[in-house]
Structure formats: C-alpha cells, structure tokens
C-alpha cells in the first residue's frame, strides 16, 4: 500500500506549484552565456575602432573630445550596440524557448508577459536617456547609464523569475556607478558587466538548474 505524503512534503509541493504559477522559470543559462560572448565581441570591435588597449583609459577619445565625436563615430557605436542586442535577444529567445518546451511551460504565458513588461519600463527609459546623452555629446556617460538601467530592469524583473537574477542586477548597477566616476573606463566596465558577468551568471545558472 502506497504511503501518503507527509505534511512537509505536501507543503513543498504546494510551494513549488505556487512558484511555477507566479514565476517564469524557463530562462536558460545558455542565453546568458551567449549574450556575454556577443557583448565581448562588440566590445572588442569598439576597442579596435577606438584604437586603444583594453586597460587604456579612453578620456582623450570619446569621453570629452567633442571633435572626435562625429556622425561616423556615433553610427558605428549605434550599429555595434544594435548588433549585440539583436544577437543576444535571438540567442535568449532560442534557448529559453527550448527550455520552456522541455518544462512544458508556455514561452509567452502570463508569467512571461509580466516578466517582460516589468523590465521594459527601465529598459525603454534607459534607452531614451542614453540617446539624450549621445545627442548632447555626453557619450562617455552612455555606457555607465546602460549598465545602471539594465541592472534596475533585472532587479525589477527578478520578482517574476529566478531570484538569482537580482544578484546580476546589483552587480550591473555597481559597475555602472563605478563607470560614472571613471568615465575613461566606461567601455571596460561595460565589457565586464554585459560580457564577463553574463557568461559567469549564465554558466552558474546552467549548472545549478539545467544539468
């Protein structure tokens, strides 16, 4: 005769069911890894465009030199950022959809929509703010601003997905604040935040939840 589950096991099952119904748990760690790889590729292209080394501050190039900031300069960085964004989103959608299918969870269900909408406000506001910075010639603050607003978006969205996301968000905000004070190293902080930290986070999430 099959034993009935203990009250503690029943409580755990109820908690898991409630968590699955209120949180989108299909975010794949591999999407973070690939997003980090694409970000590092974009940062490498930016360093080559600027003609500086990774640890070399870029004060003389993009932070304050108004003569250096021309249309071709802005066009390169906008295209570079757009390519990184499209590649990262594509990888994220692919790996998340694959994981959601394995788990039998809808890719665009109620919890997924709540996650996306909760992140959109900081991301859209941050994107418009960065465009304003570029428009006014304060391009050296654009990289710190992207880190800060992205971190805020992760914190806002962490309530609808894995709790671990909040730690990545806090890290991005800290890097953004540091980059705001050391503008010459904004691109380096951007590469660490969007590149290295995404790879580390994605690898940890993959081994923690998907293996």
From TrEMBL:
Keywords: Membrane, Transmembrane, Transmembrane helix
Spans traversing the lipid bilayer: 24-49, 69-95, 115-135, 141-158, 165-184
Annotated source species: uncultured Cytophagales bacterium
Origin: domain of life: Bacteria
Protein name: Uncharacterized protein
């Amino acid at each position: 005769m099959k034993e009935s589950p203990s009250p503690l096991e029943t409580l755990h099952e109820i908690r898991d069911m409630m968590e699955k119904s209120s949180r989108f748990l299909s975010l794949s760690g591999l999407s973070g890894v690939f997003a980090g790889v694409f970000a590092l590729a974009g940062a490498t292209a930016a360093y080559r465009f600027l003609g500086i080394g990774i640890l070399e501050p870029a004060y003389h190039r993009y932070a304050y030199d108004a003569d250096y900031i021309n249309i071709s300069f802005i066009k390169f960085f906008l295209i570079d950022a757009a390519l990184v964004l499209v590649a990262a989103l594509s990888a994220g959608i692919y790996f998340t959809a694959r994981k959601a299918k394995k788990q039998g969870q809808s890719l665009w269900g109620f919890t997924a929509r709540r996650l996306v909408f909760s992140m959109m406000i900081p991301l859209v506001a941050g994107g418009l703010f960065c465009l304003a910075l570029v428009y006014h010639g304060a391009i050296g603050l654009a990289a710190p601003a992207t880190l800060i607003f992205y971190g805020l978006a992760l914190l806002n969205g962490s309530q609808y997905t894995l709790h671990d996301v909040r730690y990545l968000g806090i890290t991005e905000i800290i890097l953004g604040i540091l980059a705001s004070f050391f503008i010459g190293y904004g691109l380096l902080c951007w590469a660490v935040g969007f590149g290295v930290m995404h790879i580390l986070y994605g690898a940890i999430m993959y081994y923690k939840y998907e293996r």
